[in-house]
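note to self: dont lose this again. the chain is below, predicted strucutre after it. 274 aa total, dont forget to put it in the shared folder this time
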Amino acid sequence: MNKEISIKTANLLEDIRKKAPLIWNFSNFVSMDIAANALLAIGASPAMAHAKEEANDFSQICKAINGALTINIGTFDPYWQECALEASSLANKNSVPWVLDPVGAGASSFRNKNVEELMKFKPTVLRGNGSEIMAVSGIAGGGKGVDSTSSSNEALDAAKSIANENNIIVAVTGQTDYVTDGNTTYAITGGHEIMTKVTATGCALSCLIGAAIAVGEDKLLSTASIISIYGLAGEMAAKVAKGPGSLRMHLLDNLANLSASQVLENANIKNVWL
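---
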């Protein structure tokens, strides 16, 4: 990773801790706990609010104090769908950056419809695994439920296509993570395979991306940077964890204790030409 990117990645971590951005989350039932705790650990301020009646208030607050919205479709029902559409519409109207996590896209027509409707309000960042990103792009293969059966490498062309067609950032996560706006693409290595054995680690990452784009002016690099920071915390956690249960604990500890100097030395982001 070049020195300039390393410095900006370390600075992003410090900025999140300094500014403690409000992140308004439509998380699913499974991910609420770890998502909120991951945000708190890294220094952000989570609000888990799903009621349609609160959408305008939270949108105005996020606009006023430079917060962000994250939407995760993992356990949607028709009411949550209605609320999320209201929230994303307001975010778009009020220029509040927001993240869409299309959990299980391709697994059911209901999930596909949710994604189709939400994409109309132009998420700042779309973050998913390989199968989810390919499903969003209309390519066959919806994965195994909410698990991915396609690699991030296989989904990269789909990610670039979505980014170009919608003028958004797409992050596809896997063994190598890619973040692209269709023109510039960053590749991030890090993390540990045991992270896939802890439910909702990807959902938590989507919420952390919300924190990154709330404070970072360069939304593309900020997205790549927070993915790298999260992967580094996961690597460090895996070194001392005895299994998935303790990994979760150590992951949160490392998000809280990770220093800017550790990020500067160990984060791994490359600008790739593909």
